[in-house]
Amino acid sequence: MPRNPLPTGGVPSVGPALRSAAREASPWIERLARLGYAARGVVYLLVGYLAVRAALSPAGGGAADQKGALRLLDTGGAGRAVLAVVALGLAGFALWRAVQAAVVDAREEHGGKLAVRRIYHGISGLLHLALALEAARLALRKPGGGSGDETRHWTAEAMQRGWGRYAVIAAGAILIGVAIKEIVGAFARDFAERVHVHDLDAGLRRNVERLGRFGTAARGVVFGISGWFVLQAGLKYSPSEARGLGGVLDALGDASYGQVLLGLVALGLIGFGVWQFVKARYMHLPAV
């Protein structure tokens, strides 16, 4: 695929040594980033599958978050091999987010927008690194890992500190902001601008893009609901109010017409997973 590097000037906040190292490692960073998109696809396909199963058979088990989905792969030798590849991919995606935050963002934005994008990519990188470590732990059969809602756990931990309540409120507001960005972006004209699906016919290309929009919007809805729960936890000083991805999916299943709502969101998350595979293959990644 032809590369169209962005302009290289105007990155005053990143040292020349870091830029030079990133430029030298660029081919490997791109390979790891593409593997990372594919690994994200695996994770969201599993999350969506568990949510579909919960929607079709509520008595058969609840939905799960990303770490819960990874445990589906913990089935022995072959499963551990897949987990190892997923762990490498997620670590590669975390590295790509770090490179975006440190190098790429400064070429595309300035001022407040640059700060927001760097925060977004930095948080995304940390979350994917944590997920990579969980996949590696499962692959190596190391003890550890919790089975509860980690968002609730970390909310409770934060609230034990004096500043914790305000951090939780800020985290909830950030999640809601990310959700709005995801949903608005899903319907934006330039949604697939960097996904160059040249070798697909026009009809298939449109359908793939629609699936990506639907999946991205569904993920945004889940983020928004999670952000609302976290915000309420901070405002009410009640950590039990907080819910992560798995908790949000369970809440949707318990609502009126819950099976329908959960089923729609589950299909959206599967669509988001498929879209990650499309991005892994066709997305144009700016040169670093």
Question: Could you explain how this protein is built, in words?
Answer:
The chain is mostly helical and 288 residues long. It has helices at residues 16-24, 26-56, 66-70, 77-108, 111-139, 150-159, 164-186, 202-236, 245-254, 258-282. The two termini are 16 Å apart.
Per DSSP E runs of 2 or more residues, the count of β-strands stands at 0
Structural class: mainly alpha
Mean of all residue-level pLDDT scores: 84
| Unreliably modeled segments | 1-15
Radius of gyration: 19 Å
Instruction: Please state roughly what percent of the residues sit in beta strands, choosing from under 5%, 5-15%, 15-25%, 25-35%, 35-45% or over 45%.
Output: under 5%
Order of helices and strands: HHHHHHHHHH
Choose one word for the global shape.
Answer: globular
End-to-end CA span: 16 Å
* Distinct helical segment count: 10
Helix percent band: over 70%
Biggest sheet overview? none
How are the SSEs ordered, and which strands pair?
Layout: H1 16-24, H2 26-56, H3 66-70, H4 77-108, H5 111-139, H6 150-159, H7 164-186, H8 202-236, H9 245-254, H10 258-282
Helix pairs in contact: 2-4, 2-10, 4-5, 6-7, 7-8, 8-9, 8-10, 9-10
